UniProtKB/TrEMBL annotation, chains A, B:
It catalyses: (1S,2R)-1-C-(indol-3-yl)glycerol 3-phosphate + L-serine = D-glyceraldehyde 3-phosphate + L-tryptophan + H2O. The beta subunit is responsible for the synthesis of L-tryptophan from indole and L-serine. Keywords: Amino-acid biosynthesis, Aromatic amino acid biosynthesis, Lyase, Pyridoxal phosphate, Tryptophan biosynthesis. Residues 74-417 form the Tryptophan synthase beta chain-like PALP domain. GO terms for cellular component: cytoplasm. This is Tryptophan synthase beta chain. Its EC number is 4.2.1.20. One of its GO terms (molecular function) is pyridoxal phosphate binding. Belongs to the TrpB family. It comes from Thermogladius calderae (strain DSM 22663 / VKM B-2946 / 1633). The modification N6-(pyridoxal phosphate)lysine is found at residue 111.
Amino acid sequence: MELRSSQRPDLLPKSWYNIVPDLPEKIPPYILPDGTVVKPEMFHALFARELVRQEFSDERFIKIPDELSEYYLQAGRPTPLLRARNLEKYLDTCARIYFKYEGVLPAGSHKFNTAIAQAFYNKLEGVKRLSTETGAGQWGSALSLAGSLVGIKVRVFMVRASYNQKPFRRILMETYGAEVYPSPSTITSFGRKLLQENPDHPGSLGIAISEAIEDVINSGGEAKYSLGSVLNHVLLHQTVIGQEAIKQLEELGVGVEDVSYVVGAVGGGSNYAGLAYPFLYYRLRGKTSTVFVAVEPRAVPSMTRGEYRYDFGDTAGLTPMLKMHTLGHDFVPPPIHAGGLRYHGVAPSLSILVNHKLVEPVAYGQREVFEAGVLFARLQGIVPAPESAHAVKAVIDIARRYRGSCERPVIVFNLSGHGLLDLKGYEEYLYNALPDT
Amino acid sequence: MELRSSQRPDLLPKSWYNIVPDLPEKIPPYILPDGTVVKPEMFHALFARELVRQEFSDERFIKIPDELSEYYLQAGRPTPLLRARNLEKYLDTCARIYFKYEGVLPAGSHKFNTAIAQAFYNKLEGVKRLSTETGAGQWGSALSLAGSLVGIKVRVFMVRASYNQKPFRRILMETYGAEVYPSPSTITSFGRKLLQENPDHPGSLGIAISEAIEDVINSGGEAKYSLGSVLNHVLLHQTVIGQEAIKQLEELGVGVEDVSYVVGAVGGGSNYAGLAYPFLYYRLRGKTSTVFVAVEPRAVPSMTRGEYRYDFGDTAGLTPMLKMHTLGHDFVPPPIHAGGLRYHGVAPSLSILVNHKLVEPVAYGQREVFEAGVLFARLQGIVPAPESAHAVKAVIDIARRYRGSCERPVIVFNLSGHGLLDLKGYEEYLYNALPDT
């Protein structure tokens, strides 16, 4: 391994952890609107075969191919596990706060972990192009980079409101060589229909997913679809995060049984699952009593206020229906800065864990989230992505309970990305222009 | 050391390397316009005493205080040494290309290495506030963060053109808690004078330095001044980069005598010195024959076309005069995106090395530099800062000479920062709107 000095390839796991066989109940089958159960083969038009196999797999551990491990190493995995000592001191807490920092990955967030896996398998299977959606752009930029690295074209439908207001993520995707269209776009019939109804349509993640899928269906087999969260295989790829964290904590003398809280933000659930599922492996076997806290924005409360029912993954209803906590596939989220958390549903696996009270959801407003983000930046130097700042806020609230306490609980959270391309939100907060949604 | 698992504190040097006693000739004294030689005491009004001591020191190694090493570790030092394998393959070169990646530091560039040292010593000496200038904002954001970490206020005069066109760096400084004024500002008499002459004055780095110094002089002893490049003590602090790189290369089986080229971009000279001076330590002792390449923009050609003479460090003439390669302190650089390279002079120590042909300067135009930056992003995942992209361009040109060669020279360069807050320049390049200055 000549890639990088001071790197620790031994901390990188050899397999992803698939939580599906360990869940307290089976994930209800994906169905069509008429109730037909979706078979794996029906997914082959959309996804690479290996990804479909992983989606429906009951294997507990799925081997990471060696070539893919190389990509992980090149991108800077294992990512650092850091202790937030300055935050601990500021809060005057006895809690020990550790965080996994995924923002060191080149596109700036955890999304690269699955982006490179999806690009890799699609390339292996001869796919020429990937089509996807993106909200604020973290997923889109990760897939654009992954496509550039493995040599596969990437087309991104970017929610029009973000496309117009936040050009930097769009430029980043273009710098990586991707084609980026504002969604609704004029290159799909669904997009054209929406633009006809409203030429200034701001778009949504659900709409962008619909467009990407339509684009794939009409590509004559040249393109496949790529999704950044929600599905099993996507969450699976993120489990490198938690597996590394467990080994890194061990090296610091913290056993998995010593971890009191695991905290993360939830959009579709992928960064959360990435950190939490490897810890849940032990919890589900009764070996730990870790509390799992999942944080969402009050403005998009799919876990705390959504219904658990079958719903579409997209707005047009092109995807199968998944049983999940959902606000409805036609839910229009307010324009909060945490674009990655503006999705109407959450992963089916995470929904089940919430139902069984193994994961505790909590919701926060935007102002208190940015307040936490600014505090973290000033104390620890890293400006958190608005999504990740939700986790920071929850960690602060937990840590404050242990002020002058004899207990020294360990809190671990996922700082899933940096906020350097989200500074507009920080400016609004600093200048009191941020609506408290 | 409980800070961070998978970190290698043993790679962090215990001392900075001071090249001054090893230079082929003495640095000419700093003088006043009337020829008076500036004594160290005359700097005490501007700088912390320890920094003045370092500025005039002849000690070859200056110990890094333990508390400061802790800050370096917390910020993520040692930074990774990476091999650009994809770039090598793409260029079909036999050269081995390694780079030190300083963009992982929290404010996104190498500037943190001296910012935290300067903030640390000023805090120790009871200084309440630091005043400084910034162009594009890398230096200003590093000092803002350093000030926040050690608990010292920071005031930044930001070149007005950048302040207006690139709000993100300004927001980053404010997120870290700094006060940021567009320069020329209304809070200094020099600024007011310039605004009276031209209310739309775009400002320059030289003007911003003048304002920061005036601000310090009028602070009644409360504030000190902080500079991001050029001076000996600033370059000194950056030598952690090259010292780490030498150890990291050794671990990969590359001895310092195997290094054929050391490449970096030059504004005032600090990132360049940071990587190159520890390698020059061996070159100056005849132990290696490494070629040192220093890259500057064709639009600001201080090394390739400037004169070697006494000049002021700022526009108003408030600083002492330094003997250096300069375009003149009233030189108005064109508005290239590499804001960190828009300075009229270069460090006196680097000027001497250029005079003695120990360092070879080369200049590039902006379009070819961004072309190299885009190529690097697509192949290696990291978007280089426009400043660092100058180094990338030179490395590509060198590596191309070893196509199908039997020689396998080692090229080491400094990727001093990421370009995530400079994507506007990349957009102009991608859309053919970048002037080829």
